[in-house]
């Protein structure tokens, strides 16, 4: 007597709702390559009184839900911000803004929050928020000049890239390193597994 044949799990295709090369590189570390990459168009302005944690959670879900999805697609979106207390440090507007951010981060701890949201093939949204504590050494004026001149901090939340030159400023880190880069892999893997996307 033979048992009933087991139906293979349907193939799910991953859609990344982000054009960030860092997020693509992080997904590649766990063997995942998105079948599509989409840049969702949403308003990223923080709401009045909104906490950094709530801010990244809201943006990640908004980005994931803003992407049109086929029946066999799973959408992944993320948003990362740097916060000093309740103050959200977005991407610097110019070099003067970058200098202001580096001076604020100098010699103190800050939080890096990432919201991750996955919308599965049934339209169900699952989300998590990662929190990493980072402490910078006290930066000298020469170090700030050097980093600003590198151009690396422009276009980065909080005005720095931990995967680049700014790593020499980090004297302490507690939590996920990949979170600070832009996508917490522990949380991301858990959400994608629940949505039917296996490791590559």
Automatic annotation (TrEMBL):
Active-site residue list: 79
Listed GO MF terms: nucleoside triphosphate diphosphatase activity
Site (Important for substrate specificity) residue list: 22, 80, 163
CDD domains given in the database record: Maf
Subcellular location: Cytoplasm
Cofactor section: a divalent metal cation
Domain of life: Bacteria
EC number of this enzyme: 3.6.1.9
Reaction(s) this enzyme catalyzes, per UniProt: dTTP + H2O = dTMP + diphosphate + H(+); UTP + H2O = UMP + diphosphate + H(+)
Keywords noted in UniProt: Cytoplasm, Hydrolase, Nucleotide metabolism
Primary localization: cytoplasm
A single GO BP: nucleotide metabolic process
Pfam families in the record: Maf
PANTHER family in UniProt: BIFUNCTIONAL DTTP/UTP PYROPHOSPHATASE/METHYLTRANSFERASE PROTEIN-RELATED (PTHR43213), BIFUNCTIONAL DTTP_UTP PYROPHOSPHATASE_METHYLTRANSFERASE PROTEIN-RELATED (PTHR43213:SF5)
Stated role: Nucleoside triphosphate pyrophosphatase that hydrolyzes dTTP and UTP. May have a dual role in cell division arrest and in preventing the incorporation of modified nucleotides into cellular nucleic acids.
Family affiliation: Belongs to the Maf family. YhdE subfamily.
Protein name per UniProt: dTTP/UTP pyrophosphatase
Source organism: Sphingopyxis granuli
């Amino acid at each position: 007597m033979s048992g009933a044949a087991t139906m293979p799990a349907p193939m799910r295709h991953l859609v990344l709702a982000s054009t960030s090369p860092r997020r693509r590189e992080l997904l590649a570390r766990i063997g995942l390559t998105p079948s599509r990459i989409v840049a969702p168009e949403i308003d990223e302005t923080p709401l009045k009184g909104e906490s950094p944690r709530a801010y990244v959670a809201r943006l990640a879900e908004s980005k994931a839900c803003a992407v049109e999805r086929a029946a066999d697609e799973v959408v992944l979106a993320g948003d990362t911000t740097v916060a000093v207390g309740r103050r959200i440090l977005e991407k610097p507007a110019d070099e003067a803004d970058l200098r202001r951010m580096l001076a604020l981060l100098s010699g103190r701890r800050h939080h890096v929050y990432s919201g991750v949201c996955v919308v599965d093939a049934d339209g169900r949204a699952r989300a998590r928020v990662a929190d990493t504590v980072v402490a910078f050494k006290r930066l000298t004026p020469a170090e700030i000049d050097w980093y600003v001149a590198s151009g690396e901090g422009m276009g980065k939340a909080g005005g720095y890239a931990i995967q680049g030159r700014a790593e020499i400023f980090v004297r302490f880190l507690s939590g996920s390193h990949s979170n600070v880069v832009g996508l917490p892999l522990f949380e991301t893997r858990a959400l994608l597994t629940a949505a039917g996307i296996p490791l590559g």
